[in-house]
Amino acid sequence: MLQGIRARFPTLLAAAGATAAVGGYVVWTATRPALAATPASALSPDEWRSLKLVHKEQLTKTTNPVWLFRFALPDEKQVVGLPVASCLLTRAPITKKDGRPGWAIRPYTPITAPDARGHFDLAIKVYKQPSPGKVSTFFEGLSVGDSADFKGPLPKLSLSDIAKRKEVGLVAGGTGLTPMLQVATEALRQGLPLKLSFIFANVSEDDIVMRKHLDGLAAKHDNFRVYYVVDKATSKSWPGGVGFITKDMLKQHLPHPGPDSLVLVCGPPGMMGALSGDKLPDKSQGPLTGLLKELGFDESNVYKF
Ligand SMILES: Cc1cc2nc3c(=O)[nH]c(=O)nc-3n(C[C@H](O)[C@H](O)[C@H](O)COP(=O)(O)OP(=O)(O)OC[C@H]3O[C@@H](n4cnc5c(N)ncnc54)[C@H](O)[C@@H]3O)c2cc1C
């Protein structure tokens, strides 16, 4: 518990430590700026807020490429204000079927830590095929200095609920990576006693977003493993899985079903259908079906993002 609080509020605890060590007015005034230096979250769940794009970078050069978009917060000391695990909403102007102007609204999960100051990053797959995606194409067209609208947070599953289990399996396809990265990075940063096993599926090796970062996490933390699966391997020495995710891969790389385990799933509709069944149209979890059900999991130990 203390460890979690310590990791979350290092500045405040450092300041409190200084007060205890030295005491008195001088240190109190030194402590004040640290407390005052935590402005409110930049986003609101109730109103759209316009933020400026300050950096744009292509992460994969694939048919549907992934881009990183960095947005500045109004104050450089501000945090985006999204607890793990949650996402934000953004919107793009569209022309509706009846010719009137409207908005396409989509959720995205920042890949920056929840306490990152002054900015947040989104990794967005830009859909060009089978036809251009409305919101991702809008983002691709933004130039540094342009703005986009955001709202949030949209809470998903809290890290404290995830941490009630001992073993957590993460299964993602493509940019379904982003919520998994949010959960894994924060759980590892807080030193939570969780065993995390990640199965990450992509079309090709070139499509694997942030592979170096994931490999770095696995090298640094004994309790984090990642197993990559690609539709088609191009190199002969490919160490991961090939084809769609199979029951055997799940059996081998995920925790066993039980009260101490949890599996988080996020991916395109086809993958969700095969592994767990997709969420219902009203965005509720819906029944568990697919390979995870066949392996003995039930609704209490699978969460669909
Ligand atoms: C909780 C959550 C978090 C997410 N986080 C991220 C993230 O961090 N990064 C990210 O890249 N994505 C993320 N997504 C997905 C994202 O919200 C969008 O769904 C995605 O970017 C596509 O939106 P779009 O408007 O660009 O494309 P759309 O206009 O919705 O189209 C997407 C693709 O599907 C095709 N398509 C559309 N309709 C049909 C149809 N009826 N039949 C067949 N094909 C169709 C289009 O041609 C296009 O290729 C997240 C989703 C959820 C639910």
From TrEMBL:
Cofactor: FAD
PROSITE patterns listed in its UniProt record: FAD_FR (PS51384)
One example GO MF annotation: cytochrome-b5 reductase activity, acting on NADH
EC number, UniProt record: 1.6.2.2
Keywords from the UniProt entry: FAD, Flavoprotein, Oxidoreductase
Pfam families according to UniProt: FAD_binding_6, NAD_binding_1
PANTHER family: NADH-CYTOCHROME B5 REDUCTASE (PTHR19370), NADH-CYTOCHROME B5 REDUCTASE 2 (PTHR19370:SF171)
Protein name: cytochrome-b5 reductase
The species this protein was found in: Auxenochlorella protothecoides
